[in-house]
Every structure is written in C-alpha cells, then in structure tokens.
Structure to design on (401 residues):
C-alpha cells in the first residue's frame, strides 16, 4: 500500500485526508496540536510541527512515504517541498516554494525578474524600520513576511501610526520579520483570487474567483469568494500571461497555487500573493461545485506521481459564492440566522463552532466561525448578496461582560 504524508490536520484539511483514504493510500498525518481533528481520519498520526523540517523528514523516512502534501497550508508548504526534495519524491524546487512562501523573498524575486512590484523592504527590528520609513510614500502596507490568512496586515496612512502597525505584524510573524510595502490601489471592485493548477510546467486549470472583503470589520481579510470572475477579457489574458511567466521563472512543474492579484488604473498587474498550495476557506470545494474539477484529487494524485487530467469544460451561467461566517466582537457563539429567503440558496453549510464556544473579532482567517456556500440564479442576485451579505446572514453572538 502506498503511503502519503499530509502536513496539517485542521477541519479545512480533512477533505484531503478523506480523499487519500478513499483512494486506498495509507495516510500519515503530522500536526503540532494534540487535539487536531484530522487525526481522527488519518491511519497514523504524529504530534509534530509542520514547520519543523528536520522532524518531518524523519517521520517521512521512517514511514517510507511515497508522497508529501501540505494541503491549504502556507507554513507547511516549504516543509513539504524540502522533505520531498530530500527523498526524491514529486515536488517543485524547494527554493521556489520558499520564495513564494515568504513575502520579502517573493518581492525581491519579482523585482529581479521584471515583474511589477511596489517599493518594499523587510525589517527585523522596529529601530531600523523607523529609521527608513520616511523613505516610503504613504500610505503603506505593513505585513508579517510569513503569515497566512491576512493575519497581522495593516494599512498605515501616516507615519505616526506606523509603530503600532509594526507591533501588530510582529505579533503575527513566526520568524519576527516584517515587510513594508507602498500601497497599490486596484482598479477593479474585487481582488482577483482563486486557485490554478499546473501540469508539466503549464497552467492546465484556471479557477479564478472574485475575493470579497468586509470594510466594516477588516478590509484585508477575505469574507468570501464568488464564481465566475468579473474582469475584462484583456485583463483576464494579462492575468494568465503573467502567471504563466511567473511559473516559468520559478521552474514550477506541478501543483495547486492560490492566487491573489490586483491590477491598477494603468493596467499594471501586481502579484499580492501566489501561495504554493490550495486555497483556504474551502476554495477547492467551491471550484468543484462550479466547474466539476476536483482540485483535491489533482493535488493528492500529483504528489503521488500520478497524472490528473482536467476536462476544462467552459461552465456558463453558474453563480456560486461562499460567505465566511464571522463576527465584529468577542463573545460566545449562539447561532446563525438566515434572512429574506437566502436559506433557499444554500448549497452547503460548514460551522466550526458549537453553541457557547468562544469566538473573536475577525482580524484573520483563523477567526472564522464557518463557511456557507450559496447558488444564485443570476449575476445580479449574486452581486446583491456579496455587496452586503449582512442583509441575509447574521451571526448571533452573546457578549460576556
């Protein structure tokens, strides 16, 4: 029986474990949390941090695994590539995955390879950052170089607010390194997002989506995605051209990549992120509902050295959205209330919390309460929902005094 090593056992990562089990693979799981839910699905489980490359390599050697997957995990992606490269298993170059996983390395790579890139610099101390901050044109974005889910990201309008933003980013950085970038204003209503999949060095599947934000809570944390993508044909062609050029420059051979792209008023494209893994917030599930293409299957099979064929059928007149259940205050979760008939549009509901569980202000993807999938009849109906979803969905929280 072939063995597959899966890095991460959160609720969102369970579908990858389930798929591997159904295919008859022996599933070995690593996660640093002793109570991770994935261990209830894997055949064997280790309580090991997925960022500890040496420890994960030892597990992989001892188990004699045939493939390694970091499904929907930014922190674990370099580890998966490192281990697979050491063992001669299917992978993209470790160096390339590391570039994509760390924002400072990615920005440097973009500049060196003639991609559009805002002025940006990494800092390891607040003193050096304060010395150089006046060299930037405000507003600026302040980010941890190694966080995912938009945790610790702030927009700073004036220099007086910089130190506080730096401390917020620092609290969310595993390696305690921060990057400062000049702000780029996008010239389209929604961030260009979604997943794509590379086969033999070429993008074979484009699962592009609109990424939605809630400016009342946090304008940099996605609160949902929607299909199909709403950009012009020219801009769509630009996205595909530059993304393929990026993969060519990085010698990428296969796998799922999570996209975050913006285009400015001068039609200049900027890569905000290109995560070397499947998207979080159940993006693969949305893409399967919308297109019939199974990104989980493609990810697992490719890591095991098998080819996965995409149908690339042109799906039209299908309007599917996700909404990330969240709250703008700390408290105890009570229930989700659906209003104005929106419950008739629900395709799937996944709630992570039970009644009475503690929930926090939504300042990062890790504070999500759950995800709901909706299917709409028309684009207008879909956009009406995504513009103001609170009209249809209310998360009821009991505040503790």
């Amino acid at each position: 029986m072939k063995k597959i090593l899966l890095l991460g056992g959160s609720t969102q990562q369970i579908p990858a474990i389930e798929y591997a089990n159904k295919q008859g693979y022996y599933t070995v799981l690593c996660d640093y949390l002793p109570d991770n839910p994935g261990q209830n699905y894997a055949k064997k489980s280790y309580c090991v941090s997925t960022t500890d490359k040496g420890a994960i390599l030892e597990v992989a050697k001892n188990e004699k695994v045939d493939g390694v997957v970091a499904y929907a995990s930014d922190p674990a992606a370099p580890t998966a590539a490192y281990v697979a490269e050491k063992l001669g298993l299917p992978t993209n170059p470790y160096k390339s995955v590391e570039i994509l996983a760390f924002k400072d390395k990615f920005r440097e790579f973009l500049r060196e390879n003639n991609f559009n890139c805002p002025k940006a610099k990494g800092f390891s101390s607040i003193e050096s950052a304060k010395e150089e901050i006046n060299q930037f044109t405000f507003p600026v974005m302040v980010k941890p170089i190694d966080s995912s889910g938009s945790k610790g990201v702030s927009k700073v309008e004036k220099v007086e607010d910089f130190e506080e933003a730096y401390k917020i980013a620092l609290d969310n950085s595993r390696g305690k390194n921060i990057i400062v970038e000049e702000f780029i204003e996008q010239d389209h209503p929604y961030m260009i997002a979604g997943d794509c999949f590379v086969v033999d060095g070429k993008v074979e599947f484009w699962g592009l989506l609109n990424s939605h934000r809630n400016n009342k809570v946090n304008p940099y944390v996605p609160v949902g995605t929607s299909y199909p993508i709403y950009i012009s044909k020219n801009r769509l062609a630009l996205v595909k051209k530059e993304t393929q050029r990026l993969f060519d420059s990085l010698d990428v051979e296969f796998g799922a990549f999570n996209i975050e792209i913006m285009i400015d008023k001068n039609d200049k494209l900027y890569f905000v992120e290109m995560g070397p893994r499947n998207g979080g917030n159940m993006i693969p599930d949305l893409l399967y509902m919308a297109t019939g293409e199974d990104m989980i299957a493609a990810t697992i099979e490719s890591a095991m050295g098998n080819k996965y064929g995409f149908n690339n059928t042109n799906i039209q007149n299908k309007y599917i959205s996700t909404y990330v259940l969240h709250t703008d205050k700390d408290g105890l979760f009570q229930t989700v209330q659906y209003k104005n008939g929106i419950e008739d549009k629900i395709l799937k509901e996944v709630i992570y919390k039970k009644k009475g569980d503690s929930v926090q202000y939504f300042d990062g993807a890790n504070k999500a309460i759950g995800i709901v999938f909706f299917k709409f009849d028309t684009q207008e109906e879909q956009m009406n929902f995504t513009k103001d979803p609170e009209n249809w969905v209310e998360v009821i929280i009991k505040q503790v005094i």
User: Anything to note?
Assistant: The chain has a mean pLDDT of 94. Residues 294 and 353 are 27 Å apart (CA to CA).
